[in-house]
């Protein structure tokens, strides 16, 4: 039986993920596809509140490993909701960041890549992942508010990008360059990738 698709939008900080995610939700709604957004980290849960403090308060220290496990735990908090949406509720789930961010940001600090993936093993794998990509990571640092949060440092973002690129050979992965493009052009490119999935996917859920 067909189920609804799991769609992830990934990218470095301030590449327009949140804008493009909301555009994508509108396209799904106009196409009469039931849909919901889940944004990671979900800062509203108890674990999410701790993550928010970690991201916004540079005096609040956690070891890299424990921060990593909190981000993963935050995804597991939503596990049942994601599965139920896709299956029982036939609702497409759009993820604004997911496991790929989880691995890339922590591996960029020097933690072992496979160690970083391990706590998310068992989470559902997206049917399709859009990676909003920059040719020049300095371009985004000019955006308003850049640098407000812990990871918004150009040198660190370059390391994160290097880790994200390790996923580029995944079969569900689609790079979309955003440099020099308008919001609408990127929006159209995303929709052309997503549209083939909107009427549901036949397969069982894949897991990490
Ligand atoms: P956002 O709310 O999308 O701007 O994400 C907040 C910041 O947290 C951003 O710099 C990316 C980072 N981030 C998101 N997910 C994870 C994760 O699972 N692990 C780590 N270490 N960082 C993450
Ligand atoms: Na951010
Ligand atoms: Na964002």
Automatic annotation (TrEMBL):
GO terms for molecular function: ATP binding; dTMP kinase activity; nucleoside diphosphate kinase activity. Residues 9-190 form the Thymidylate kinase-like domain. GO terms for biological process: dTDP biosynthetic process; dTTP biosynthetic process; dUDP biosynthetic process. SUPFAM superfamilies: P-loop containing nucleoside triphosphate hydrolases. It comes from the Eukaryota. Keywords: ATP-binding, Kinase, Nucleotide biosynthesis, Nucleotide-binding, Transferase. The keyword Membrane does not apply. One of its GO terms (cellular component) is cytosol. Its EC number is 2.7.4.9. It holds the Pfam family Thymidylate_kin. Pathway: Pyrimidine metabolism; dTTP biosynthesis. NCBIfam families: DTMP_kinase. Belongs to the thymidylate kinase family. This is Thymidylate kinase. It comes from Brettanomyces naardenensis.
């Amino acid at each position: 039986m067909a189920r609804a698709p799991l769609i992830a939008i990934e990218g470095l900080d301030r590449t327009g993920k949140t804008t493009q995610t909301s555009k994508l939700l509108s396209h799904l709604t106009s196409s009469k596809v039931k849909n919901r957004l889940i944004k990671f980290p979900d800062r509203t849960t108890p674990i999410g509140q701790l993550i928010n403090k970690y991201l916004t308060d540079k005096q609040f220290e956690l070891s890299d490993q424990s921060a990593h496990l909190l981000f993963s735990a935050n995804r597991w908090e939503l596990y049942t909701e994601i599965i139920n949406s896709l299956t029982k509720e036939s609702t497409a789930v759009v993820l604004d960041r997911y496991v790929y961010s989880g691995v890339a940001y922590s591996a960029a600090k020097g933690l072992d890549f496979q160690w970083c993936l391990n706590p998310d093993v068992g989470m559902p794998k997206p049917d399709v992942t859009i990676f909003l990509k920059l040719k020049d990571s300095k371009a985004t640092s000019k955006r308003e508010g850049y640098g407000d949060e812990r990871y918004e440092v150009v040198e660190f973002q370059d390391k994160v990008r290097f880790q994200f690129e390790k996923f580029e050979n995944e079969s569900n992965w689609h790079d979309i360059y955003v440099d020099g493009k308008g919001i609408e052009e990127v929006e159209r490119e995303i929709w052309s990738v997503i549209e083939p999935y909107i009427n549901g996917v036949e397969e069982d859920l894949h897991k990490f």
